[in-house]
Every structure is written in structure tokens, then in C-alpha cells.
Amino acid sequence: MTERYDVAIIGAGPAGLTAATYTGRAMLKTALYEKGAAGGLMAITDKIENYPGAIAQSGAELAEAMLKQALSFGAELKLGDTQAITHNGTVFTITATEGVVEARSVIYAAGSIPKQLGVPGESAYIGRGVSYCAVCDGAFYRNLRVAVIGGGDSSLKEALFLTRFASEVVIIHRRQEFRAEKIIQDAIRNHPKIKVILDSVVESVEGGDFVERLHIKNVKTGHISTEPFDGMFVFIGYTPQTVPVQSLVELSDRGRILTDAVLMTKTPGLFAAGDVREKLVYQVATAVGDGATAATAAEQFLAGHH
Ligand code: NDP
Predict the structure, then answer these.
(1) Is-contact 5 30, C-beta < 8 A?
(2) Considering the entire predicted model, what is its pTM?
(3) Is 186 among the residues known to form the active site?
């Protein structure tokens, strides 16, 4: 017989881990699905400085502590990809690499994955000079020259992190203004290892076995220059992972899941939490809040109070 849970939580980032702690404490039988390492994007963040109480803590440490806490309250961790979630009006069926289970409610917190630039050479050089994770790959670029693409919080924070290893970090941004927090902009300004190229985009990536050069176009003048680089780190935003629930939810024009005030989607019993849903702020602090809200709302839904 198919195993049945009260709640299936998809994604063990800060939203999913918090939700699991709450549903576990509410004595709900909880399955927690994760396709990679627990912690999601938080786990590959070097330092988290704006999550209250965690003063300059590493994302990996915070992820480990959150996972330990969630499992201590009884959540069952299931490693593997979640391929499909269906609903028959009463029960959800979750089909994942490790098998099929049923759940009376689902908290979907699958997060998002890094976007690619989509320029020639980018895909071919992934793992050979093109990266989307400075914490994972930064140490390979000791005394080398790297480009960082993007003007948001991720890009500038990761550029700062890369200065620990690289001889020079060149931030290439398509506009004049960065959208990153002012405090991070201040940190990169006048940094001896950071150079900034504005109003510019990468046209293509070239090299031999590894990346050797980038063709960079100034979008104002149209001028294309070629600069030597050993690596290119791309941080131009993230794509929400919504495929398994697409027929059960409504999406915003940014492709994120729309929820009501208690984070329920258009399908009763299906909640969305964290980066996968449409909201104003995408940070660990708000993901944790989402997880707590969705779990409490799921508990009330299951008790028939919704
Ligand atoms: P953002 O969407 O905030 O920024 C993406 C950047 O990439 C923008 O500067 C954008 O340019 C640029 N960009 C997008 N597409 C392209 C393209 N095709 N070619 C070139 N450049 C492109 O993403 P982030 O990952 O930086 O942040 C995501 C969310 O996570 C944000 O809400 C952010 O605040 C949050 N975050 C917070 C952190 C923190 O410590 N506070 C750390 C990391 C993330 P343009 O500006 O012109 O649109």
C-alpha cells in the first residue's frame, strides 16, 4: 500500500526546513523531499549576515543546524527528485525518484536554480571556467582573473567572496546602477581587487580546454572588446522550480507561484513557501517566515479550520 503522510514538504531549503520543524512539532507525519544537499541556496552562501542571531555565520552551518532541528522533531528526509504532484480532490500523490507516496497536504518549497546568460560558449565551458557558485568553485581560481556577471546582491556578494582567491575580480553589469543593497555596493567600491565594467554585456566565451577570454559589448556604444579571463561567474537571478505543480497553481508574470495570505495556492491543501512563490523579499529571514506560516496553515487546514 502507498505510504501516506499528513504533510509532504518539497525542498529542504530554509523554508522547507522551517516548515518541517513546525509540522514535526505539531505531531504531523511529515515527509521532507530534497534533490540535492539540504539548505538549498543558503547552503552555498559563504556568509549570512542579515539573518537575526546568526552573526556572520556560514550558510552551510546554518543549513546543518536547521536540518538537525527538523529531523529531531520527526520529519523523514527523502533524497531524490520530485517529478510530479497530482491531486484527486482529497489527497496528493507525490511521484519522486525513490517512489510514490500520498499526503493530505503539500508545502511546496522547491526554490529556484541559477539562470544562464545564454551566450555562445557558456554551456560548453560549465565546469571548465564557467560557474554559478562562488562558494563551490572559488578556490579553483587562486591568483587568476575572473569575471562576475550581474548587478544584484548575489553578484556583488559573490564578487567580494572571490577576492579571497582571485588576483582580480571584474564585475560586468549591463546598466550604470547596481540593484544590490547599498552596504554591499560600498564594500565593492574602492576594493583593491575589484574592477567594474558598466553598461556592458558578455557576447561570448572562448578558450581552449578552459575559459581564456570573453568578448564584451558596451551596450551604449556597441563597441566590442576582448579581455583575457580565467573564469566567469554568472549571477543574473534565479528561475523558480515550478514544473511538478504547474497544473495545480497559478503563476505570476515572473513565473512564481501566487499564494493567499496563509500561503495557500489555488489548490486547497497545497501551500508554497520560500523563493518559489511571488513576494517582495527573497532572503533566508523571509523563507523561514514562509515555512512557519505555511506549516501552521497546513496544520489548520488538516484540522478542518481553514
Ligand atoms: P537579481 O534579480 O536581484 O539581480 C540580477 C542581476 O543580474 C541584475 O543586476 C540584472 O540586471 C542582471 N541580469 C539579469 N539578466 C541578465 C542578463 N541576461 N544579462 C546580464 N545581466 C542580467 O538577482 P540576485 O540573485 O542578485 O538576487 C535575487 C534575490 O535574492 C534578490 O531579491 C536579492 O535581494 C536576494 N539576495 C539577497 C542577498 C543578501 O545578502 N541580502 C544575497 C543574495 C541574494 P538589471 O539590474 O539591469 O536588471
Answers:
(1) yes
(2) 0.88
(3) no
Q: Is residue 239 in contact with ligand 1, taking CB distance under 6 Å?
A: no
Active site residue 136: yes
Cell of 103: 499526503
Query: CA angle, 190 as apex, 186 and 191 as ends, to 5°?
Result: 90
% the chain with pLDDT above 90? 93
Tell me the pLDDT band of 273, cut-offs 50, 70 and 90.
Answer: very high
Which residue, 69, 97, 67, 76, is CA-closest to 6?
Answer: 76
Residue with cell 543549513: 63
pLDDT in tens, 13-22: 999 999 999 9
Q: DSSP assignment of 124-173, as one string?
A: GGBTTTEES-HHHHGGGGTT-EEEEE-SSHHHHHHHHHHTTT-SEEEEE-
Is residue 275 part of the annotated active site? The answer reads no
- DSSP, residue by residue, 264-297: B-SSTTEEE-GGGB--S--SHHHHHHHHHHHHHH
Q: Is the CB of 174 under 6 A from ligand 1?
A: yes
- Checking if the pLDDT of 275 tops 90, the result is yes
Q: How many Å apart are CA 57 and CA 69, to the nearest integer? A: 17
Tell me the residue type at 296. T
